[in-house]
Every structure is written in C-alpha cells, then in structure tokens.
UniProtKB/TrEMBL annotation, chain A:
It comes from Marinobacter vinifirmus. The keyword Cytoplasm does not apply. Keywords: Repeat, Signal, TPR repeat. TPR repeats lie at residues 44-77. Pfam families: TPR_16 (PF13432). It comes from the Bacteria. Residues 1-24 form the signal peptide. InterPro entries: TPR-like_helical_dom_sf, TPR_rpt, Ycf3. Coiled coil: none annotated. PANTHER family: TETRATRICOPEPTIDE REPEAT PROTEIN 6, UDP-N-ACETYLGLUCOSAMINE--PEPTIDE N-ACETYLGLUCOSAMINYLTRANSFERASE SPINDLY-RELATED. This is Tetratricopeptide repeat protein.
C-alpha cells in the first residue's frame, strides 16, 4: 500500500509523531498466508552448484547457506538436501540435519540414501532408535540390493528396542 | 563738627550728630568762634566761664561782593562832610564786615580814629538838636560807637539814656540786653539777671528773649549754687523752647544751636557739681517729659568722663537706663558706659558693662527694638564677650555668646563655627556638631569648608568612642562625607576620610559601602599614595570576600605596586609580603573557580601563575600540585603526568610529593599506560613500609598490560610469602595468580598441584576457582594418563603392571577430582579419559611381553589369562564410552563424546561404526523430476 503509506508519512510529518503512531496503529492489518516457495529449478541448481563448490573449497558454512536456499527453491533436489544434511551433521547440527532429510524425504520419499542417512543420524547422534529402525527398513525396501550390514544393524536395533 | 576731641566718644558723637548735623550742613559760615564757649577753653573755674557772644541783628547783604560794597561805603565815608552820611556809611561798613566775616573796610588802627571822628559828629548833631532822624536811633548809634571805640561806660550811658527817654522805642530791648550784658561782663550778675528778666518780662522780640533767657541762666549760674535752681529752670526753659519735640533734636535751629549746646553744658556742670544724676532727677521731676532729657544725661556723663570721672559717668548712664528703661537712648547710654570704662582703662569693668548690655537686650523683643547702631553694639559686645571667654577657656559661656550672637550677626556661619569650637572644647559634641553643620551648610561663610570638616571630625571621633552602634556612626559619618563632597568637592582631607571610611565599613562588615568609599578615594586623582594604597587594600579584601577573585587580584596588584614604589605607605614592615600572599590566594581562587567550571586550561594557567607571585611558597607549591590535579580531572592525562613528574622533581621534600605517585599511577592507568603505572607503583613500593599491597596492584597492572614476565615474577614472589587466605577474597586472589602462572606456563605442574590442593582444602570456592581446579586436575590427570600409557608392561609384569596400575590410579584420582570440582562441565572429558585408561590398560595388557621362558602352550595359556584379565577392563572402557555417548541427548555433543564414539566404533563396530553417504550433485537438469 505505497500510496497509503506515503500519504500517512506526509501527514505525520506535518502533525507529528503522535499521528504517525496513529497511522501505524490504525493501519490495515492483514495476516498473510505462509508464502509458498517459488519454485525455480534453475536458480536452485545454481545455488546447489555454488554449495557444492563451497564444500569442495572447505567453506562449509557458505555451502550450507547456499544449499539451504537451493533446497528451499527446489525441495525435490534430493542430492542437495542430502548433502546439506551431511554438512549440517559435520557441524554437529544433528536435529537440523534430520529435519532437512525428513523434508527431502517428503519431496522425494523413494530416495533410499535419504532414508539411510536419516536412520544413521537418528541412531548414532539423536539416539532415536525407533526412527532409525524405520528408515533402515525403508532404505532396505528401496535399495536395489540387500545390504547385509544394515540388516545386522536392524537386528541389533530390534533387540535394543525390545 | 564740634571740636570736643578730648572726650569724643562714639555715643557722644551720635548725640551730637543728631542735634547738629542739619545745622552744620545748612548754616553759613558765621566766623563766630567768640560765640562758642567750650569746656576746657573757658578756664578752670566756673567764674572763668563765659557765655557765647551775641551779634546784633542786621539787614541782608547786597548781592554784590562785600569787599566792593565796603569799598564804596569807605569812599562815601571819606568823601562826605555830612555827619549823618558819614555815620551811616560807617554803620554799613561794620554790618558788612560782621555779616561777611571778611576783613573789609577800614583796618583796626583806622577804625579807632574814624569812630573818634564819628563820635564828634554824633555829639555835634546832638548838640545842634537839629537831627532830622529819630533820636533813639542816634543814641543807639552813639552807644555803639562808644562800644566800638572802647568807651563802654559811655556806651552804656547812651543806652540807658535811650531806655529812659524812649521806653517805647523798638531799640529798647536790645539796649536793655546790652545793659544787662554790660552788667554780666562787669560781674554784676544779680543786676544782669534782673536786666535779662526785665527784658523777658517785656514784649521784646523772640530772638532777643531767647538770648536773654540764655544769658539770664548764665547770670544765675554765675551767682553760685544758691541760684542754680533758677539757672536750671532758665536753661531747661530755653531747651523746651528750642527742642520741643524729638524731631527738633535732629535739626535744631541753626541760630540757636550753640545756645542749646551751651545750655546742656551748663546744666551738666551744675549737676556734676551737685548731686549728679540725682540732681537731674530732682530738676526734671515735675516737668513734662522732654525729648532733650537723654542729651542732658549724656552731657553730664560726658562731663564726668572728660574730667576723668568715669565711674560717675557710668553711674549717670546707668541712672538714665534705670529711670528710662524704655527710652531708645538707654542702650546708647549703656554702650557709652562701655567706652567710658575703656577710656578709664578698666577692662574688666568694660567687659561687665558689655555683659550687662548684651544681657539687657538679649531677648528678641528687646533686641528688635534696638536701632541699627545699637544692634551693632550688641553684636560687637557679644562677639567680644564670646571671644573673651573663649580665650579664657570658659567654653560654655563663650559658646552661649557665640550661639546667641550667630543668628543676629552678618557672619552667622563664622560665629556658629566658633560656637561649635567652644562646644567642642567643653565636650558637648552634639551641640558642637549642630553648630558646625549649620556653619557649613546653612550659613555659608568663608571657612564653611572648615566647619564642615570640624563636623566630620566629631563624627569620626565618635567612631573611636563607640558611644553608638558602629554602623549608625559610620552611616552618619558617611552622610557627612557625602554632604561635604556635594558642597565643597573632594580635597586632601576628604580623600583621607574616604580611605578611612572604606576601612571602617570593611571592619563593620559592609563590603558594598567599603567598596563605594574605596572607589571614591581612587576616583580623586590627587589622592595620596597612602590613601590609594588603603583604598586598593579595601577593594581587594571586599572583592576577595565576595569571591570576585579577578577583581581582587587586580586590586592586590595595585596595592602591591604602590607599596613597592612608595614603601612608606605600608602599615607594617611585612605589608608587601602579606599582599603577595593575598595576591597569590586570589589567583589560586580564580584557578579553583575555573576548575570548578570545567575551564581546565584557564585553571591550570592560574594555578601556575601563583608561582610567579610567590615562588617556592606553600601556596605556590599547592597551586602547582592542584594544576596537575585539575589536569587529572580533565582527563588531560599526559599533561597531568608531565606536571606531576615536574612537581616531584621541583619539590622532592614537599609533603604533597608523596601523593604524586598515586596520581601518576592513576594518570598512567587512565591514559592506557598500565606498565608505567605498575612501574610507578613498584618504585613507590620500594620505600613503602608495607610494599606488598602496592606490588600486588602493580602485578594487576602488569597483568592488564599483558606484561606476563613482570606479573608472574611478582605472583611467584607473593605466593612464596603469602599467608594462608583469611577469606574468600584472599583465596580467589591466590588461586587466580596460580591459574595465571599455569596459563603462562610458569611452574605449571607445581602450580597445578598447589592450586588443586588449595581448592580442595579451602572452605571458599567460586565458579572460577572450581573450574581452575577442575582444569588443573584434568591436566594433571591427562599427564598422569600419559605417564600411565608410557609404562610398558614388560617383564616382570608384576612390577610394571603395578607401576602402571599406580599411575592409572593417580590419573583416575585427578580425573575424579576434576569431576568433583566441575561436575557436568568436565564429565565428558573425565568419562572419555577414564574409559581410555581402561582401554589402554586392557590393550597394553594384551600386548604385554610374554615371559620368554614359557613354551608355546604356556604362552597360549598365558595369553588366554591375559585376555581374561583384559576383557573386563575393555568392558569397563566401553561402558564408560557408551555412557559418554548417551550424554549426547542430555548434555549435547562435544569433542569428548565424539572421541568416545570413535573409540566405540573401534571397539564395537557393529553398533557404532557408521558411514554416512554423500549423493552425487545434481548439476544437470532434473530429467527425472
């Protein structure tokens, strides 16, 4: 509402701060709906690429920032989300990492590595053995071939959960 | 003017003037000294006294000159043969000579012969009996001719013949007069009296009657005292006739004035030879009041005075004043008494007479009634008496006379001044003051300024007496000063007074008044150096008292300049020193004021100026010190430091120097120079009885500056001698030092052990000390762990294992101590390190050297035994690491948990060994999406 704001400031400049405050307090208040991300795959890819380069250059924080933007623009970029989660894990930001993975799984539920990494982080760093078991299981379901180590881990988990 | 020089007096002259002035002015010159009979010229006895000579009446002179007329008659007399003509010509000549007073006609020698010839003519005519004119006239002329030729008896005979033959002739009165006169001249006074009385009883002409009365009085007088009453009556009647009213006293008839005057004289003589004033009283008793009475008394008084009888003269005057108190002449008479006493040389009597005179006419009513001359007398006498008493130091009487005189005198102011002086002499200051002030301001006179000053002097003297509140007295004096200034303007005395007033007002506590007078003193260019000096001192003191220090300084400087240029203005020998002290104080106060107002530069400049006035003085030193203080307050650190250092150099022995060190420390600290601050403290500590508090402050500063070697050196020295902590603060201090030494790497292990022991033994703890103790314990534990790990388990195993276990126990102890001090904060590390101790021991045990003497079986069994020994140790290690791993959710992830996780991954890979998986970056378009 630029016109209204401009007019209000003009009046306010004339009659003082009280009226200006009045304008502010009586101005129209409309609760905005949560904005939907504007999907922009090209930009997301560019950001993901920048994240990758930063990671390669050891600039973890820069990489995380870029990838967070990329994932926000394109939640379907499972690789970006996964690698972002790993970078967050490097900075001991385990909950954030898990959150990124969960979000990515929502957009890309059939990407096995997302489940695998979420299961590991849940098991080792969040001590959430149940979640770990679920995502190990989902991983095994999606994996192209059987992973015996994972199968063993699942058995150990099941024992520890009993 | 009547020549009465021997007894001439003012009063006498006044009377004379009244009587005779008109006559003298208007009368022609009669050339008649024979008419005048004056005292002292007639002889010493009454018998010698003679009446005035009388002239015959004659016709007026022609208008031409007497000499010419005489010449013509003389020619007629010489050329004519007719006896009548010749006689007539001669008569004319005589008349001309008598009336003109000139020596005309024949000379005296010629006249005798001529009258002889004329008498022959008369006889011839008489014998012929053919005289055509009146025979009475012929007889008259013959009598006259006889008289002129000295044939007096024949002359009288002819006159008596005329009287007898022609009693009705108009020439008879004159003939009778001549006959009586002849009797008088012959001493036949009784006959003369009778003749004159006969003449008076007749109807003769008035002028002849008057003269006859006069001569009758004389005839009676000449008969002696027995006839004096008659004589008195004759003369008084004559006076009544000629002076009937007061106006005539001023203008008596010219032709009679000598007779009048002579009548007074003879009356006076008779009174003097009788009973004086009492005789006069008696003679005048019963008579109508006459205006000439005062003159009579006056003549009597004069007569006595002339004869040296001043007392009698005065008595006459007083008698008159008593008998005629309201008579205007009474005052003249009394005034005359004063002169008589003066003439008598009796000064005291003269003074008494003056006093009497003044008292008698002192009242306004009596004084107002006096005429101008009398008033002048009164004033003269009052002044005389006032002066007289003044000279005799009879101040009260003198003052009374001056005061009563003042308002009646022309010079009122001058008289009041004298009255004031007399009052002052007698100590009546109020009256003196009133007189002086009136003389100064109400009745101006030549010396009014002196009167004004006298009034001021009285007021100033009062100040010394303290007879009234000093402020009131000062106010009065100030008012007088103002009045004086307005009236006369400033002068040297006033200038001194102003300076004095300035001082006195200052003493009385009224600075504004003091200032006013100081200013007034200085405003007068001719003020003396001493007055200027006093004024500047007052100004300076008032200004200083008011806190107006710049003005005070200016005034002190003026005073100082004066006392240096003119040392005699000083009140004491140390004036200059005192002024310099005050000047320094004024400057110092300016500095203080400037400092208070935040004007640092000005304050410092002023503080430093003090030294130029009194170098080396206490105040100068203090000012220098305060200059530095001011700079400190103004945060002008480096300048303050320089000042303080300079102060210390300049005044090493001054008490204030001891304070410079602290101030320098402060300045160094505030200016970011903690090392210098610490150095200053260390220098101070060198001479301090208790150096350690100072050194510890230095240590703190070294610490702040990062000067660790200096700091640590002090820490070590202190910790070596420090007593047991007496409180938490002491404990914290010492632990802090130990911690810092540890952090600096100085004597680390030792300090860690001491720190740990002190913390363990202390009853006081803080988060910091506990943390430091925990850190020390961890460090020591870590060191012990390293030593533990370094112990190789070689044969004999018992020995090495024992050493290793002992080392492990030591490490465990440190680690548990750390946990006990820091709890959760160190638990991850403690758990990790403890776990590693077990894991290392287990590992080292498994890798321990197998005794060489064992065979293979024994070796296998030995190793199995080792495994059995090691397994629980490994289990214990894994349990501790797992416990550490579990802390990840509660305490958060840290490096020690990470390291435990690494250890667990190695010890139990199936559960803890995990690898996360990176995904390939999707750099292409997402074809799958």
């Amino acid at each position: 509402m630029p016109e209204f704001s401009l007019r209000c400031r003009t009046v306010g400049a004339l009659i003082g701060l009280v009226m200006l405050a009045g304008c502010a307090s009586t101005g129209p208040v409309s609760k905005q709906a949560e904005p939907e991300p504007v999907r922009s795959p090209e930009q997301a890819r560019e950001l993901a690429r920048q994240g990758m380069l930063a990671h390669e250059q050891g600039q973890t924080s820069v990489a995380i920032e870029a990838l967070q933007k990329a994932v926000a623009l394109d939640p379907t970029d499972a690789a970006a989300a996964n690698n972002l989660a790993l970078l967050l894990k490097q900075q001991n930001r385990f909950e954030e990492a898990a959150g990124v993975l969960k979000t990515a799984i929502q957009a890309s539920p059939d990407v096995a590595d997302l489940h695998y990494n979420l299961a590991v982080i849940s098991e080792i760093y969040l001590l959430d053995l149940s979640a770990a078991l679920i995502h190990y299981q989902r991983y095994t379901e999606l994996a192209a071939e059987e992973d015996k180590a994972v199968t063993g881990w699942m058995a150990d988990l099941q024992r520890r959960l009993q | 003017m009547t020549p009465m020089a021997p007894m001439k007096s003012t009063a006498r002259l006044k009377l004379r003037t009244c009587l005779l002035m008109a006559a003298l002015v208007s009368a022609p010159a009669l050339g008649q000294e024979s008419f005048r009979v004056e005292l002292g010229r007639d002889g010493e006895t009454l018998g010698d006294m003679r009446p005035v000579f009388l002239k015959f009446e004659s016709r007026p002179l022609p208008a031409i000159s007497p000499a010419e007329v005489a010449r013509r008659y003389q020619k007629l007399f010489e050329s004519s043969d007719e006896p009548e003509v010749r006689i007539d010509a001669l008569n004319r000549l005589n008349n001309i000579r008598d009336r003109s007073g000139q020596e005309v006609g024949f000379s005296a020698e010629q006249e005798a012969g001529i009258y002889e010839e004329v008498l022959e003519s008369y006889e011839d005519i008489l014998a012929r009996g053919s005289f055509s004119g009146r025979l009475d006239e012929l007889l008259y002329q013959m009598a006259k001719a006889h008289a002129l030729t000295g044939q007096h008896q024949q002359s009288i005979d002819r006159l008596e013949q005329l009287i007898g033959l022609y009693p009705k002739s108009p020439l008879v009165p004159e003939a009778r007069f001549r006959v009586a006169e002849a009797d008088f001249s012959a001493g036949r006074y009784r006959e003369a009296e009778a003749g004159y009385r006969q003449l008076l009883d007749g109807d003769g002409k008035q002028d002849i009657a008057s003269k006859a009365r006069y001569m009758m009085g004389w005839s009676q007088f000449k008969q002696g005292a027995g006839a004096w009453d008659r004589s008195v009556e004759s003369f008084m009647a004559l006076l009544d006739q000629h002076l009937p009213e007061p106006e005539r006293l001023k203008s008596p008839p010219a032709e009679s004035r000598d007779m009048i005057e002579d009548s007074f004289r003879i009356l006076a003589v008779m009174a003097a030879r009788s009973d004086n004033a009492r005789s006069l009283d008696r003679w005048l008793a019963g008579r109508n009041p006459a205006p000439w009475v005062p003159i009579l008394y006056d003549r009597l008084a004069d007569l006595h005075a002339h004869e040296g009888g001043y007392q009698q003269a005065v008595a006459v005057n007083e008698a008159f004043a008593a008998a005629y108190p309201d008579n205007a002449a009474a005052s003249d008479m009394l005034a005359q008494s004063v002169e008589f006493w003066q003439m008598a040389g009796d000064v005291e009597a003269a003074r008494v007479a003056r006093s009497d005179y003044v008292a008698r006419f002192a009242s306004d009513a009596r004084y107002t009634a006096l005429n101008g001359n009398q008033k002048a007398n009164w004033r003269d006498y009052s002044r005389f008496l006032a002066d007289y008493h003044y000279a005799g130091k009879r101040w009260s009487q003198s003052a009374d006379y001056y005061e009563s005189l003042a308002l009646r005198a022309d010079n009122t102011g001058e008289i009041l001044h004298l009255a004031g002086d007399a009052r002052l002499q007698m100590g009546r200051l109020d009256q003196a003051l009133a007189n002086f002030e009136k003389a100064a301001y109400t009745y101006s006179h030549d010396r009014s300024v002196e009167s004004a000053w006298a009034a001021i002097s009285i007021l100033r003297d009062r100040l010394g007496n303290r007879s009234e509140p000093v402020t009131e007295a000062l106010a009065s004096l100030s008012s007088a000063e103002q009045r004086y200034t307005n009236a006369f303007g400033p002068d040297a005395r006033l200038s001194a007074l102003r300076a004095d007033l300035a001082n006195r007002w200052l003493e009385a506590g009224d600075g504004q008044q003091a200032l006013l007078y100081a200013r007034a003193t200085l405003d007068w260019p001719q003020a003396s150096p001493r007055e200027q000096y006093a004024a500047w001192l007052v100004t300076a003191r008032v200004r200083q008292g008011d806190g107006d220090y710049p003005q005070a300084e200016a005034a002190w400087r003026q005073a100082l300049q004066l006392v240096q240029a003119t040392p005699e203005v000083a009140e004491s020998r140390d004036d200059e020193q005192k002024i310099q002290n005050q000047l320094a104080t004024a400057i110092y106060r300016q500095a203080e004021t400037a400092a208070g107002a935040g004007k640092t530069a000005l304050a410092v400049a002023n503080f430093q100026r003090v030294e130029t006035i009194l170098p080396g003085s206490e105040i100068a030193i203090k000012a220098r010190f305060d200059a530095a203080n001011t700079l400190l307050k103004a945060a002008d650190w480096q300048t303050a430091i320089n000042e303080l250092r300079r102060f210390r150099l300049d005044f090493p022995e001054d008490a204030l120097t001891a304070e410079t060190s602290e101030k320098l420390v402060y300045a160094y600290q505030q200016s970011g120079q903690p090392v210098k601050a610490a150095g200053e403290l260390m220098a101070a500590a060198g001479s301090a009885p208790e150096p350690w508090p100072i050194k510890l402050r230095a240590a703190a500063l070294y610490h702040e500056a990062g000067a660790e070697p200096e700091r640590n050196d002090l820490y070590q020295q202190w910790l070596a001698v420090a007593p047991e902590p007496a409180d938490a603060k002491d404990h914290l201090q010492q632990q802090t030092m130990r911690q810092r030494l540890i952090e600096s790497g100085v004597d680390v292990s030792n300090q860690q052990n001491i720190l740990l022991a002190r913390e363990d033994a202390s009853e006081w703890h803080s988060e910091e000390t506990l943390q430091w103790a925990a850190d020390a314990a961890l460090a020591l534990g870590s060191g012990a762990a390293e030593r533990f790990a370094a112990i190789a388990l070689t044969a004999p195993l018992e020995t090495t294992l024992a050493r290793k276990q002992q080392a492990m126990e030591q490490a465990q102890t440190y680690l548990l101590q750390a946990e006990s001090f820091a709890g959760e904060d160190v638990q991850s590390e403690v758990l990790y390190r403890r776990a590693e101790l077990y894991r290392t021991l287990a590992s080292d045990l498994m890798a321990s050297e197998v005794p060489a003497e064992l065979n293979d079986m024994e070796t296998m069994q030995y190793q199995m035994l080792l495994e059995e020994e090691a397994f629980p140790l490994e289990e214990r290690a894994m349990a501790l690491h797992a416990r550490n791993h579990q802390r990840i959710t509660g305490q958060g992830y840290d490096q020690w948990i990470a390291r435990s996780l690494e250890a667990l991954a190695g010890m139990h890979p199936g559960r803890y060994q995990r690898e996360l998986r990176w995904m390939s970056w999707n750099m292409e378009g997402n074809d799958d999406a």
